[in-house]
Amino acid sequence: MAVGVGSLVSRVYGNFRGMDTTKRDVSLSRSPDMQNMWINYRESGGKCIETRPGLTLIDKDTGKINGLHQYTRNSVTKVLVHRGTKMYLYTYNSQTGLLSKDSNTEIYSGLTNTQSFSLMYDDILLIKDGTHYLQYDGSSVTEVSAYTPRTRIGCLPASGDSNNSQLVVTGSSWEAVNMLSDYRINSFVGDGTGTKFKLNETSIDNTFTPYVEVDGVAVASTNYSVDYTNAVITFTTAPSQALTEGEDNVFIKYKKAVSGYKTKITNCTNITAFNNTIFFWGNPDFPNTMWFAESTQTPAIESQTLYNSNVTPSYIPDINFVKDGYDYGTIKAVVPSNNALWVFKSEASETTVFYHVPQWTYKNGESSLGHYDYASTYSSIARGCEGTGINFGDDIVYYSSRGLEGITGDITTEQSTAHRSSLVDDLLTESINDMYKMVMLEWEGYLLIFKGTIILLADSRSKFQYEDHIEYDWFKWYFNELPFGKYPTAGIVVNGRLFLGTSDSSLYALNNTQSTRSVFAYWTTPEDEFMVGQYQKTTSKRGCVINMTGEEVKVSVKTDNNDFEDINTYTNTGTNPKNYVVARIKRKKWKNIQLKFSSNKPFGIYSCTLQAYVGGYIKR
To answer: Which of 263, 378, 474, 617 is deepest in the core (most CB within 10 A)?
Structure first.
């Protein structure tokens, strides 16, 4: 359309899409500056921008909220709130949609006062805080009860009367040592005559008297002696011959602690599920290492006293670990997706993105025995991770020093990164030294990134093609209901409702009722030159038509380098999107113009039409 002197130009601001802080040809559908607005697809169908939900305070205590952990079983949902060094228990009420403290609210104490992470596995909630490995079973929080592995099977009594130091270990290796457990089991085939039984160790711990069972019956410790140095059990009377030929009937549980084994796992800060197993990572002493659990291979549990537990999370073999790159590159995020486990490391001079594909490995050549290995494969990506990552609707994304990155390609192709946050990089990259505290979670189709006092929302339903890749549209929330300087530190989605924990120990629910949406929100249009930046413009006397809803909305205007000036505050515009107001905006001889809609009460903007006449050339 040819535009010249005397032309009447109409500009329509609508079909809103989010923020654009780049200051480069901002689309009429985006805002260079906004706060506490979003598109509520569930209720408005994406037809307008509106005030975000407000906060409903559930309660406040002392200590920063470090984590919110959900446990659901038999249609009952509990939320464990990690506050300071303590864990508190809440129950979700499906009628009110809120959380309420249980009568015995403090359920655990002694946690680390830092971020904690959790996941559900086999009706058990597993929790990591960088010092502990805990479980919640619906009634109490306890340390994970370590599985005792059977490290050797099919052993035979030692022959002859040789000196104990000369006895030979027999049998076959079975399960690897459990890093969580100081205990191990050897099983033997009794022959009715042999009295000496050599364990597959030397120098077992003398702080524990070995526990012995023969044919499933415990043997009194007075009926055998223990050579702790040579790891030999000598019976006063030979155990009976196995009832079934070749079948183990003598079980000996002993202690052999390895310094540093357990802390390799307990000092991990994070936990991730993939391929029906559990991965542990984030140990600062082993920054490039992951350990993983394994299903037990013991065919039957003869007694609870022997084995304690055979649940996968409680068995982490000492051979089950992988290293991704060099030690100086710290693992920042681990994300399951596309049949692989993706590992994102901090930026360094090495490859920073790795992936692991499960490969079944047979044991001793027997097809019935084996386990999954997760060999490390480096990708072709060099840009590292400085915050965290997430699988956002099958888009693998992570935070780098540039902003949000996404993975293009999969394990069968050459991988590369594609930027996802070009429109808000300046907001995302501020204060990157605090990125270790970053939280990402998905809610209502948005990716929420907690970053200090603001939350940025990436819209999965509003994507656009930028050069050769896909980017997201973004919104910015600031929780002005919180005390000054306080900010969200944890979040969780329960039955579709978002709950937030804060740095001042408050627990909130997002609530979309009118009474809780009295928050300050605003939306500004781009600095609009009306397609002719070289000409002066004058607004039409007919003003500006705004389709909006709300109890009270202020309209302001800004021209060129001036400040915003208030035009009017419009009240009781109703809830019908067909309602409109006419704002009498009278501004002359401007180069660019910008509108601002703001309110302390809930409102929505569907569209705005502004007209102006084109005048002569701009004079310096």
So the answer is: 474
